[in-house]
What does this fold into?
Amino acid sequence: MAHLVAPSLLSANFLNLEKDIGMLNQSEADWFHLDVMDGLFVPNISFGFAIIEKIRQATHKILDVHLMIVEPERYLERFKRAGADIISIHQEACKNPIEAIKTIKNLNAKAGIVINPATPVSTLSAVINHIDMVLLMSVNPGFGGQSFMPGTFGKIAEIRQMIKSRQLNVMVEVDGGIDLNNAPKLVQSGVDILVAGNTIFSSPDPVQTIHQLKTIC
Ligand code: DX5
Ligand code: ZN
It folds into this structure.
């Protein structure tokens, strides 16, 4: 499939979210990437249900919810109810990821597993047959605007190999430090979804930047 672009609203203007959502609605952005942080799993706190519910009312695009929270299984139903279409949970945050994945699917959402830069791809072996997407962190989670970690490329190749050898239909999303310089190589490496926060929202022309991210190959 052609790759997708998922702007991360962490870098949006929270004083005027409606304006940024309107801009994204007019743009070629495919998904809205929503970063939920609890101050425990990551050293930052972002936003939760109330904001996601409001975003749900303001767009028809897919809401791709990235949960950076401990024990995500406690809140899966709430995030689905708030409007999530895709729910991704961290491998490192979950006692029983396969159980949690089943819960997400029973809620009629797509399920993703996220791995941090320090977490080896081999840890996906037991879960990859059950999921719709792997979300590969290319920065340590917690903050927007960090630099892309080049070790990500080797991990993408390993994940693609695992997907191919098992003949699975699993999407690969990469998140953190993506810009117009590294995006082409990411797409060539087989990434299906590019998340971008700072690159889009600090651009003087975000719609054009999204267009550029969409049309690289
Ligand atoms: C980091 C978040 C990312 C972040 C990406 O913890 O998961 O989604 O917002 O932001 P940029 O593209 O600015 O690195
Ligand atoms: Zn994210």
